[in-house]
Amino acid sequence: MSSLGDESNPLRVAIVGSGPSGFYATEALIKSSLIVEIDLIERLPAPFGLVRNGVAPDHPKLKQAIKVYKKVAQNPEFNFVGNVTVGVDIKAEELQQTHHAVIYTCGAETDRRLGIPGEDLPGSHTATEFVGWYNGHPDYRDRTFDLSHETAVVIGQGNVAADVARILAKSVDELKQTDIAQHALDVLAESRVRTIYVVGRRGPAQAKFASKELKEFLEIENCRPYIDPAELELNEASQLEIDSKEGRGNKKNIEIFHQFAGSEDTGKQRVCIATFLKSPLRLEGEGRLQKIIFETNELSGEPFRQSAKGTGQTTEIDCGIMFRSIGYNGVPIEGVPFYERWGTIPNDAGRITSEQGGATVPGLYTAGWIKRGPSGIIGTNRACAVETVEALLEDVGELDTDKPGREGLYKILNSNNVSYIDYAQWEKIDAAEVAAGELKSKPREKFTRRTEMLEVAGS
Amino acid sequence: MTTVVTENCKGCRFTDCVAVCPVACFHYDDEMLYIDPDVCIDCSACIPECPVEAIFEEDDIPEGQEHWTEINADKAPDLPLIEEPMDPLPEAEERKADLGF
Where are the domains of chain A? Predict the structure, then answer.
């Protein structure tokens, strides 16, 4: 009798989400000893997730991870099914019927909310919207950002906050030969922003920036990074943190912060100010954001477990625009378990469970940010996806053997009149983007409308 | 800029770094690992993974270790690629302790 994963019955896996985790899961399955057929399903007509739509346009080297994904895509076991939203175009339950196993690698697509009054005033935005907008993500194409006020505020001190601040800080000349979307470049060219605050809840020793991201602020042509030196005085626990081995990254950050604090005012057009120990209490304004009220915090607790507590003292920043970047949550898919509190799919080392801490659901797996929350960088997702695929491979003997795979998938999509695209069609879009970019000395000019992409794909 | 494997890897070769490399830029010989600077995308994912702190961003290499940038660039391309972690060298734990980790 044949067994699942041999020539007569390949292991048919649907992977939902074509970002790094989706591609690393694909790669791990192809490298396994089994015969596999992979359908990588993506809701956009373009693959590569956050490497295309999240990594900042002025970080072209990081985007070279795409080369690896393009190589994975050349394997005969691989099939791309773009422009298909699971839960809308096909039900999650249907996918379980068509494939032996389904791996959800759909990332963390929404920003956490601050949960304070005024959060929805015009001028209050999420980092996700801004990042999606400047990266040409079709969902954010029509967002508008009013950069007419001279002060902008970024809430949060991780790498996305740094990206947002840096894009606001750079001159158009520094950005125009990147793959930044033209519509964003046009708006940034008119920006009147002069001061950018990057505000953290905790202290400088707890900021989550990668030191490499911080160093970049020292190189920006027309923007001076600055910190009030008084803000760099550390309490004893924070000093212990940065002096310990686990704190070596933070120690490097503190060294760079001191360079910010000592930076000379050479008359640069813009200044980017990092400030610490402040939590936003409320956003105020007549019809739109005009002012943010912060409460000053103090740290207490053991090293690496310090928490920020409000002191009752408040400060204000007058501003015209704010971006929050305080963490990300996954978006639930109908028919797939979801743990609201963490914004993740509940799982045990990649095996999806019915609820947090519940029993595993046969045939369902997850990897990447939707599995473990939004931490780590591109490569972290490779180790994460490998763990998930190892779990799946251990379970192969217990999976239902009789599944139609992509034939069944296409049948459902066709009966639902979904215009999906395959990898060859994506390659047409890719080539057209690169050609459009060449005219402007850009690596590519992205299509920012689904309709344009589908037209080029010939779908 | 690139990322560089330095002296501490010699005799350890723990390979924890390899699991998180997004682009398969590590190569190995009998002693240690090397990064191919033409493939590495400078994401720094590998740096905190190393149990003996052997990996550095190029502009962050400790004094006296700078020559490793050239060694990595020279050696990596001709050595076999390593894409999955493997067992450390037999003397790795001993060497790790000697290094003070």
Answer: 11-109+330-420, 111-328
DSSP letter assigned to residue A37:
E
Chain B nearest-CA distance from A80, in A, is: 20
CATH number belonging to domain A111-328: 3.50.50.60
Which of A12, A66, A17, A64 is closest to A44 using CA atoms? A17
The whole-angstrom separation of Cα A12 and Cα A10 is: 6
* Predicted local distance difference test score (pLDDT) of residue A459: 73
Q: CATH number of the domain at A11-109+330-420, please?
A: 3.40.50.720
- Asked if residue A2 has pLDDT above 80, the reply is no
- Give A186-236 pLDDT, tens digit per residue: 999 999 999 999 999 999 999 999 999 999 999 999 999 999 999 999 999
**pLDDT tens-place string over residues B1-48:** 899 999 999 999 999 999 999 999 999 999 999 999 999 999 999 999
Q: Kindly report the pTM of this predicted structure.
A: 0.95
Estimate the crossing angle of helix A380-395 against helix A20-31, to 10 degrees. Answer: 50
Q: How far is CA A369 from the centre of its chain?
A: 9
B23 touches chain A (CB under 8 A): yes
Cβ–Cβ gap A65/B45 under 8 Å: no
Task: Say what the pLDDT of residue B1 is.
Answer: 82
**Under CATH, to which class is B3-88 assigned?**
alpha beta
A296 vs A324: CA distance, rounded Å: 18
ipTM score here? Answer: 0.94
Type of residue found at A232: L
- Residue A321 forms beta bridges with which residues? A152
Domain boundaries, chain B: 3-88
Is B60 an 8 Å CB contact of chain A?
yes
SS3 label, residue A253:
helix
